[in-house]
Write a structure and sequence with these properties.
InterPro entries: Uroplakin-3. Keywords: Membrane, Transmembrane, Transmembrane helix. It is built from three helices and seven strands, in the order E-E-E-H-E-E-H-E-E-H. It is α+β, with helices and mostly antiparallel strands. The chain has a domain of 149 residues: Immunoglobulins (Immunoglobulin-like, Sandwich). A five-stranded mixed beta sheet has the order 1-7-6-3-4. The chain has a two-stranded antiparallel sheet with strand order 2-5. Strand 6 and strand 7 form a beta hairpin. It starts with 5 loop residues before the first strand and ends in a 35-residue tail after the last helix.
Length: 252
Amino acid sequence: LPTPPARLPYVPQVPAMALLGKVTATTFALERPSCVFDGHADASDAVWLAVAFANASAAFRNPQSRAEVPRYKQLPTARSYMTLETAAAAYSCSAPSPPVLRVGGDTACRDQGRQDPCNGPLPSPGPYRVKFLLMGCRGPKAETRWSEPILLRTAVSPSAIDPAPARRGSAVLVIASILASLGTVLATAVLGALGAKVWGSLCLQGLGTDAFIRRSYRTHHIPPALPQPLPPGCGCGPPGLCCSAPQPPAPC
């Protein structure tokens, strides 16, 4: 019987650090298992990643050779596959390497239909569970624990988007409307006060000019005219008759 692989305490996980596209609708990122296989791996060994639906991980069986590795295209029926074949030396403590791996990042797998191990996009949100498996020429040598279930993001259908504002936002809209109205009233009051002040200043200037004009050009008081002496010849008329203009002398 083949020797059972060593059980390592390492648990694969999605990175805790902020990472763009850490989990998408078809992919997710994993921490790179650096220093995990030191002491178990030889130079010719390879590390694989087993991916299974969470409810099918308990039924997964480790392949005994590379020829038995389950392929990506079998995922819908076999409920699991293996991918990311990597030389064990790339995961050693001394190897410089990126801090994360991306599962499902090879979009060419879906179209080419090739038979070699492929890291194709995941077909559904899952959830999925993963583990790393160290494979030698005689079969599995060491394996990690299964990860916690990893759920991918779900794309929202355009028909499911409600074009109307959410009800919980109605109160916010009412408050915003009230604040906008108060702002308009306040602005109107300020502009009115400024306008009144400017108009008052202009009126004061106008009154000062008018008063100056009136003081400068006010007509002096003219006393009533004194009675003028009658012209000659007015005394020949009847008694009590005054002439206001020269009259021809009447015959005496």
